[in-house]
Amino acid sequence: MFDKILIANRGEIALRVLRACKELGIATVAVHSTADEDAMHVRLADESVCIGPPASKDSYLNIPALLAACEITGADAVHPGYGFLAENARFAEILAEHNVHFIGPRPEHIRLMGDKIAAKRAATELGIPTVPGSTESVGSDAEAERWARDIGFPVMLKAAAGGGGRGMKVVRGESELGPALAMARAEAKAAFGDDTLYLEKYLERPRHVEIQVLGDGKGRAIHLGERDCSLQRRHQKVWEEGPSPALNTAARDQIGETVARAMRAIKYLGAGTVEFLYEDGKFHFIEMNTRIQVEHPVTEMITDIDLVVEQIRVAAGGDLTLAQSDVKFHGHAIECRINAENPVSFRPSPGKIVHYHPPGGLGVRIDSAVYHGYAIPPFYDSLVGKLIVHGKTRGECLMRLRRALDEFVVDGIETTLPLFRALAREKDVVDGDYHIHWLEEFLARGALER
Ligand code: MV4
Q: What pLDDT is recorded for position 290?
């Protein structure tokens, strides 16, 4: 096992990783920018190193500074959390070159899944159902036209280097294709420095259902069920839950086993998430994330498995001690991502928290790194914390969620708490009857202003 882990992140996920390290008896190193001197992860770590000025590119993304921090403190492993360098294959390689373990998948798998066309091709070869689409990048406009005719309109243009929604265009007919290609290429080039595009059949109203996996890099792998992350705004997840209100046990077991078998075949190491669009009872692979995700607590609450502890164990060369038959699903969990934003305009609202009273009680979990008197800096994401609620049934979970949201006090800044208080009482949400466009349509109706 590792002796000392450097946590290359900030905020609630840095604290989450720190907690796993403490339980495993592993020493911790926090790194921080000059804007994060008062951050909770810095206070709770055994040691801390300042790695640069506020801008992420100069601190949390600064690979030489992180290497120096490993060297100075003698850390033998790095946990990247999510975001920042978590899916940077080159970072994982550089750490290995310096005899520091990266707590995550092997660089080849990070790189494979970072190329969305290669990832889709791999998924197909591994027996995972994908969205019908081009199996290669689209070269010329004429080639795109051939693919589009073959697939049938509407189609979606996507960036091979993309993911997470940037550089995508819906094309509803042949006349729109030329201009859409030019726009998508320009956007992809600007965002990723790579204008490679591919094409897919556009699904109109799917759900976003993702499967959590865990592998030991030696051919053992399990799935831990799904999370439904359909409630999003501008490609930012807002509300995540598990199990998905749309799946039954047979559907879950089938897609889960398909994904687990694929992970065994590639000897996947660590935690990962395989993302699907789910429509008319069918799964369509879109991409795979090779990191721990923001919404991982949903899975932890319904499986009682500590995903970060498991990540650390397998990264240190340990065997996966869990068999698929050891994974049992209990009840229901919902996570709300509470942001420091105006709940109607979603404008960021950083600043000092003057009253902080998180809810408690049975089935209530808060993953947050804020505290009474803490000032949320303006340089990073606006996550105040995650409220995760568990119940025996979805109904009980919703009752607890409404109660917990009503208890929650965060004063001094604006937060999205009012949005969640409304959502937890909204008929479609209560019924589990929603899709990936539901939240945008709800907000467009002005439902919160009334
Ligand atoms: C799609 C799609 C419809 N059809 N692909 C958006 C983020 C990226 N990961 C994939 N995305 C989508 N891909 C096909 N073939 C619709 C979306 C999409 C979406 C997906 C998940 C959650 C929210 C979304 C919001 C808008 C569009």
A: 98
Mind listing the pLDDT tens digit for each residue in 201-218? 999 999 999 999 999 999
Q: What is the model's pLDDT at position 44?
A: 98
User: Residue 24 has what pLDDT?
Assistant: 98
Ligand 1 atom nearest the C-alpha of 230 is 22
H-run or E-run covering 296:
helix 296-303
Enumerate domains of the chain plus CATH numbers: 4-103 (3.40.50.20), 132-201 (3.30.1490.20), 207-444 (3.30.470.20)
Identify the band that residue 322 occupies on the pLDDT scale cut at 50, 70 and 90: very high
For ligand 1, residues with CB inside 6 Å are 131, 156, 163-165, 200-203, 208, 232, 235, 277, 286-287, 436
Q: Are 1 and 316 in contact (CB under 8 A)?
A: yes
Examine the pLDDT at 386 and tell me if it is beyond 80: yes
Which ligand 1 atom minimizes the distance to the CA of 155? Answer: 15
- Ligand 1 pocket test: pick from 113, 131, 208 the residue with the most ligand atoms within 8 Å of its Cβ: 208
Q: What is the amino acid identity at position 102?
A: F
The predicted-structure confidence for 397-447, as pLDDT tens digits, reads as follows: 999 999 999 999 999 999 999 999 999 999 999 999 999 999 999 999 998
Q: Is 425 a catalytic residue?
A: no
Say how far apart CA 7 and CA 405 lie, in whole Å: 30
Per-chain mean pLDDT for the chain: 97
Nearest-CA residue for ligand 1 atom 25 is: 436
Q: Please name the helix (run of DSSP H) or strand (run of DSSP E) that holds residue 315, with its range, or none.
A: helix 307-315
What separation in Å is there between the alpha carbon of 283 and the centre of ligand 1? 13
At 263-312, the pLDDT tens digits run 999 999 999 999 999 999 999 999 999 999 999 999 999 999 999 999 99
Let me know: does 222 contact 257? Beta carbons within 8 Å.
no
DSSP letter at 163 equals: B
- By the 8 A CB rule, do 7 and 81 touch? yes
The tokens for 288 are: 């795979």
**Which residue's C-alpha comes closest to atom 16 of ligand 1?**
203
pLDDT of residue 117 exceeding 80, the answer is yes
- Burial readout 374-403 (b: 16 or more C-beta within 10 A, e: otherwise): bebbebbebbbbbbbbbbeebeebbebbbe
Structure tokens of 125? 């070869």
Give 165 Cα–ligand 1 centroid separation in angstroms.
7
Catalytic residue among 291, 313, 365, 394: 291
Mutate to test the pocket of ligand 1, among 156, 274, 280, 440 (most ligand atoms within 8 A of CB): 156
